[in-house]
Model the fold of this input.
Amino acid sequence: MTRVRIVLAAFALLATASAPSAPPAGAEPASVDDAGDATADADAAATDVAPPRVRATSGLPRFAPQLANLPTITGLNGWRFTGQVEGWAGLIAARPVTRQAARWAYATHQVALGRGAEAVGALEVMRQDDPDLALVPSYQLALGATLTLLNRPAAAVAALAGEGLQSNPEACAWRMRALEQAGLGGLALAQFRCALPALNGRAVKERAPFLLAAARGAIAVGHPALVGQLLGTLPQADPAATVLRGRAFFLLGQRPQGQLLLKQARQTGNRAQRLDAELTLIEDRAQNGTLAASDTARLRQIRFIWRGDAIEMRALQLSYAVALRTHDVLATLEAGATIFRYFNGGSDRAALTAALQQTLTAALAPDNVMPLDRVAGMYWEYRDLSPAGAAGDLLVVQLADRLQSAGLYERGAELLDHQLRVRTRDVAQGPLSARVASLFILAGTPARALAAIRDTEANAYPDDMLWARHRVEAVALDQLGRTNEALAVLQDVPDGEAIRGELNWRRHDWKALAAAMPPAPGGALTDVAQARILRLAVALAMLGREGDLARLRVQYGAAFAKLPTAPAFAALTASVGSVDPATVSAAMAAIPSASPAGGIADLIDTAPQVAETASSS
Done:
């Protein structure tokens, strides 16, 4: 087949472009070491390429020295050599002494056919049996080409980064494709000069993937004028080339020519090429301010039906730009979060992250008029975009305050529980765990409240934090029916006696209430002191302890005489049986609402009312 050489005009134009350019003649091509740093999985990929060296245990003869003595592959013909047996026949017929050579012949033949999935297995088995193969340039080239065919650009670039491959034309050609797959168009173009001999040694059909990669790189770095030269040897009817030519015309301001080519590609291309052409037309309308509502809907459809490559990424970027322009907060977060989560943030992750955090912060601000349920759902959906540090913590606390004020205790608790377990560490978990547990108690889920306390026990808290946790823990245990454990938890808490009294009052444990010490007589009685004395009177009355009631009248009668609660005190401390039940009920209702347990009483009040204990009989 007659070889058609690539026109040198493309190379001359490339050499003068202001984008990252090919090195001058005689100099080594640009290093690709930076490419590994620019992709998120480069370090992991390097492990695939250069695993820890271990001694082969298969018993097969070492093949690495033999391969190293063979000429390094520098062009397409290097993948096909004399005596090569196609398919599985060579592998089946190979004896142990020739098995590695048969595997090599099979793998290189698959690379020549563009079958990366078939080649990678043979190459991996070869390396397992002879780890030194990873040091041989031809093996590195074969692995890099295979990984490129499998669309694993970071691993491919790492495999092709060996010193022996830096000026190898075939390696430069594959490196150009891998770098373009990784979104590094400038570095990909820098390989073009080095790759020219390998490209000129290929037929038009075989060189097309490499030229298309170079053209995509030229578009990515803003040099559309290169596209026509790079694709000059490809057929005018090639749909992939037609799409790229159309995109280049748009960038050059020649819209009619671009529209014609893209409409042509929509008629003749495969599904990916048709979507590429359609997306380019939508991008053009967005650029010129003529984007219709149907275009926005079509963008959503494209993103739904096509995943994981440059087409989806471009559709996401356009959706994000349109949402920003129309101030659509939900659409902005949805498109931006997808770029952040599945495309590593795109070309400028830092800028995207900052913009999304700013959008989320504004949406969650207390003065935002968006309904609270939508705000809470928005945060939960995009909580991974929340700012780090104090700013993110404040955002969560403010939202939890709003949920609590609206009575949405469980949603507030779940919000802070995520904060407690994911974002908060060490002693800072102390006050947060107490608040999470309190909200779960208010929501009627004491088991989850207890879990919030028990799951954060490992830290060494100061006494005040420890006591706050114990107060809430005791309430949760009491609501779970584990009263003895609740009372034990309060043993060392400074106000534990008051909390125990509140728990006993709620449970109608008259014996325990009667055993409590009343306030010292004398002086004015506060509301809390009045409540303690009146509750004690109720307990003594329920137990029929006439003598104790009489002593209570003597001790506190004068103090209650001038208080609004004097009638209640008189009724509750009267002789048992001397007043009717209605009077007693009215007196109990007049007991001051101030609780001896302070703020913790609000949590205790959330428990369901219990029947009187047997001790009341």
